[in-house]
Description:
Elements: H1 2-21, H2 40-54, H3 62-71, H4 79-96, H5 119-129, E1 134-138, E2 143-147, E3 155-158, E4 161-163, E5 169-171, H6 179-190, E6 193-199, E7 202-206, H7 211-217, H8 222-230, E8 240-248, E9 254-255, E10 260-263
Parallel strand pairs: 5-10
Antiparallel strand pairs: 1-2, 3-4, 6-7, 6-8, 8-9, 8-10
Helix pairs in contact: 2-3
Amino acid sequence: VAIVHRVSYPIFRATFLFLRTAGFKMSPIEFEKDDDTNHHIDFITACSNLRATNYSIENADRHTSKRIAGKIIPAIATTTAYVTGCSCIELYKLVRLGYTSAGSVEENAWLKVDDAETEEKQKAKEKQLEVFKNGFVNLALPFFAFSDPIAAGKNNMGAGRYWTLWDRFDVDMGEELSLQGLLDHFQNKYGLEITMISCGVSFLYSSFTSKDKLAQRMPMKLSEVAKMVGKMEFHDSQQYLVMEVCCNDESGDDVEVPYIRYRFRW
């Protein structure tokens, strides 16, 4: 996603600036499923299949999408419409605060220790969080209520590093790592000793694995270990493996860490 964003952002921005300069004005259009020249059904098919793929739902062809879209009764005053509107308002806030700008999100930024994390900086972060709102609604009553969100709980990883449920290790070395290479990477870069690695329902590595198995797996690429141990099969478009790990810090104490998103294809 980050790669697509970096590539597409300049195009979107240049297009937006050109249209604004040219006096372009957006206006709503009416949905018409029987006019193939307006590409409405093509757009709906593409978007719905993207969402279906994201949730492992079977994709639908253009004909099926057109049939389903033709049976949908337009809804205006519904809870879904209300929630959609509130969600869009929150998205506008993200745009206004610069979170959607190119380069605004840095991979593994949470791992950087900020020695200058002053009380003023912390208050500024909390103040920015207050801009966003949680919403509660029941149109039948009717009932509308909003509350300030709370920050995600922090987990201490040692050495002044904290992580939340939104964080992860992004391991993208530009080439495949061996199992031994991943262990060395964490030891050298983060000062963490990995004691266990799981992927799906299988343990790819553990400190108590037999020496014979470790000798076989250590030089193997991680994707090959996943195939052999976990009997995993990869789609042609799959680029990442998600792995859970247990780690010890430099003093040998067990520390909680987020999951790993490991890239094995480019």
